[in-house]
Structures are given as C-alpha cells and as structure tokens.
Amino acid sequence: MLKNKESYLCLSAMLRAREPKLLNAEKASRMLDASTFEEAAKLLTDCGYDDMSQLRSAEIEQALSDHRKDIFDEIERLSPDKIIPELFRMKYDYHNAKVILKAEAMETESDHLFSDAGRISPAQLKTLYHEEKYSSMPGALGKAMEEAASVLARTSNPQQADFVLDKAYFAEFTEAAKQSGNSFLQGYGKLLIDAANLKSTVRTMRMGKDRDFLRDVLIPGGNVSVDRLLSSSDKEALMSLFTCSELEKAATLGGEAMDGGTLTAFERACDNAVNTYLGKAKLVSFGSEPMTAYLAAVENEITAVRMILTGRLAGVKSEAIRERLRDLYA
Question: Least enclosed by CB within 10 Å: which of 107, 128, 194, 311?
C-alpha cells in the first residue's frame, strides 16, 4: 500500500518544477528542423541531457540508458516508497531476461543489449540464471524465466519464450499496482495491457494468423478481457469493444490498418491514448500520481530523443520522423 499523499508533497513539487524542462512538441520540432545533427543534439542540453552532438548511434543509446538510470535512481532515493520506481524498473528485468535466453539459444554474445535500469543488474541476473537460482531473482521474474527457458528448449522458438515473459511482466505489474491501492496506477496498468492487446489483435488479423496464435499472445488483466478479444471475428466487432474508451480512436485506425492501411498511425494512436491518460495527473497537485506520470514521461521522452537523433544521423527525412513521434507529456 502506498503512503498517504501528503508524504509526496516535496517530491511532487520538485517534479512539477522539472516538467517544463521535459521535451515538448515545440522543442522536438526545433530538433527536427535544425540544419545539422549536431545542432539538433545540442538543443537537448536545455532538457537536462549531456551534450550528445559528437556521439554515434551506439554511444547515443548508452547515453540515453545512463540518463534513464540516473533519473530512476534519484527518484527512487527521494520517493516515500519504492513501489512506483520498481514498477518502472520491472520491464527492464524482463527485457534483460529475453536477452539472456535468446543469446544462449543462438550461442551469441548480446551483453550490449542489456539495460542497467532494472531492479537487478544484468550481470547478477545472468549469474543467477546460469546457476539456476531462480528464487533469488526479484518478484515473479525467476519463475517466469525458468518457464520461458523450458518453453524455448522445447520449441526452439524465441517468440514463444517472449510470450511467457510478457505475460509474467504484466501479471507482476498488475499485482503490484493492485497492492499499491492506487486507482490511477491500476488504471495505467490496465490501459497498457489494453493497448498491447489491441496492437497484437490487429497485427494477428492483418497477418491472417489463427485464434490459437492470438490466444498465446494476448495478456490477461486489461479492461477488455481476453475472451472478448478472441470472440471478435472481424474489425467491426473489434472496434466495438473499445467504443467510448481511451482507445476508441486507435481501434478505428486499427480497423483501417486491417484493410491494408498503415500501422504507423494506428500504433501511434495506441501510445498516445496512454499518454492522454497520464496527462490526467496534471490535475493532481500532489501524491503518487505526479511521480507515475513523470517517470512515464521520461520514458516517452527518451524514445522520442532516440528516434530523432538516430534518424537524423541516418539521414531520415524530418517529416518521416515527425509522423512516428508520439505525443509528449510536457
């Protein structure tokens, strides 16, 4: 259970003061319109980033990873409780688990793909996995990793192992949000699941995959149940499931994507629906909600920065990058 909202007064005030420094649409547009990559990168120093104007793609990725870790570490240190920071760290543990399993299956070295933002260091997780000390892993990760490894050994299909880890991640997230007693956090978790399931359903129908494949992919715990999603036989039935919800517009675009339209606008609308939900935290003066929204905004910002900088480095046209950018919190 989270502490009372008064416990978050100082942290909420600090994060509110920082919100104006977050990357917003105007700053992102200036980065895209900058005449050079170096000029675009230098604009980020106003958002609290180190100067990345002389970095290449791999170095940018590391710099962004370090930036995320620094923010997570600071907010976790200042937070009255650790539930929310750990929720945001959680997905990186599951990401690292996927890296370990796939590297072992393919007999390759993939340490460069690890993230240091999780609850446990990648090196420690790797050691525990090889020593089969699953009970020493945080939360439900050990049981999930053991099951995913078994599935991978049996099927030789990394995608099936990913399905196991994805479901375990959302199940652990959902349970932690429930234990927090915070309705905003619980709603955030449910919407994340709905968005993931809508994306999976649209892609599955678009590819002509069967219901058994979709059943393996779908994640329980959203506002729209797995059974209802499986029973949607066509795009109209699918779209009706999300009527009057945050994902209504995204579902409409998903229907167009199933008819051969672009997935870009659809997936962008799914992510923007989550960002719109998080925007409700701006109406909360203090409490855990501003911290949840801020951490999610940092994640979204880093995704946008990566997209802009690596796109500019690769010579991608600014308009092509712009149409893929998600709405920003600030």
Answer: 107
- In a domain, residue 111? The reply is no
Domain of 276? 5-85+173-322
**Total number of domains in the chain:** 1
Quick one: pLDDT at residue 85? 95
Identify whether the C-beta of residue 290 lies closer than 8 Å to the C-beta of residue 7. Answer: no
Please state the rounded mean pLDDT for residues 145-172: 96
Model confidence at 215: pLDDT above 80: yes
Residue 122 within a domain? no
